[in-house]
């Protein structure tokens, strides 16, 4: 990295820190200091002519692209609070207040039901949203009524500027954002979580389909279960409770681990969410692998009596149960057998800037292209409104899981779940 580039990074860092909300300055300073001590020292050293080891050519060369991306992505978001004409309601009266943003198509695992062993073909980096584009869209959606953003992937923790993105989203709270959540496979989480927590991450879901190391290796093609379990401990220690564990139940694969997961939910403040296996491109779905939630609940109630239904939010996709005296709970997400589309409040933004108004719909609109062609915020929102106007009542208008399986859609890993 050249000294000029280093200096530009330092200038952006200084401006970021001076514009950040006061409650986040310390966290951002710590974050950048940890991520790139050289850049941090340089930013405090007064510019390109400052001396010392941190500004030597070898120090400059050691600086990563990551540090500059980090400083850039944490840049101040312009909080334009002007009222917007279009709304995020659809023709069924559903108000869309929840935006899921896929930060990357990459993943650190290779789950057999999600992608082939050699991965999926990735979009050219120039066609992915830049951090600035992503934050512009996030701010626009929040101004239009979104109050919850979930970061997904691929695997969001493989993105180098993740903590900076969380920090920048945290700056949207004055516009109405109430919650920043993330779904992760947990592999890199225990190392990153303190920074993410400091940057403003409120809620966490971990995907975990097995508690057995050998099966984890078989399912994900990586021997990473100990790291994920360390992440569970780290999340609980930092107060992410109840911690949601997402478990996709597949017949003949992990259905017999339901009791082990239930034991975890009884012993710790964890909500284990049993999710029905859903069809996506390249995931080898068949209805013989689908374990209906009703079947699972009946079997679990018989083996572990005393389950009681808990009250949950109207938009919650899960039905949640617990036992008297249990620390946590178990939930059932019956996307296939008992769809919950009537209360759907979800929008999805893919890493390449496409908006999906339904998880199962193949149709998308590219907000990236519109932005790069110069669309104003009002024009972008009008595109979103039109797409919502075409949203179907249920499952993108597809009648059965087989129709969903036959419909061309993205692989799960590039939608973000
Ligand atoms: S299937 Fe589509 S409409 Fe139904 S809950 Fe999921 S995203 Fe919403």
UniProtKB/TrEMBL annotation:
Q: Which UniProt keywords apply?
A: 4Fe-4S, GTP-binding, Iron, Iron-sulfur, Lyase, Metal-binding, Molybdenum cofactor biosynthesis, Nucleotide-binding, S-adenosyl-L-methionine
Q: In which pathway does it act?
A: Cofactor biosynthesis; molybdopterin biosynthesis
**Record-annotated Radical SAM core domain positions:** 91-308
Pfam families linked to this entry = Mob_synth_C, Radical_SAM
Q: Which GO terms describe its molecular function?
A: 4 iron, 4 sulfur cluster binding; cyclic pyranopterin monophosphate synthase activity; GTP 3',8'-cyclase activity; GTP binding; metal ion binding
Query: NCBIfam families, alphabetically?
Result: moaA (TIGR02666)
Quote the protein name from its UniProt record: Radical SAM core domain-containing protein
> Which species is this record about?
Emiliania huxleyi (strain CCMP1516)
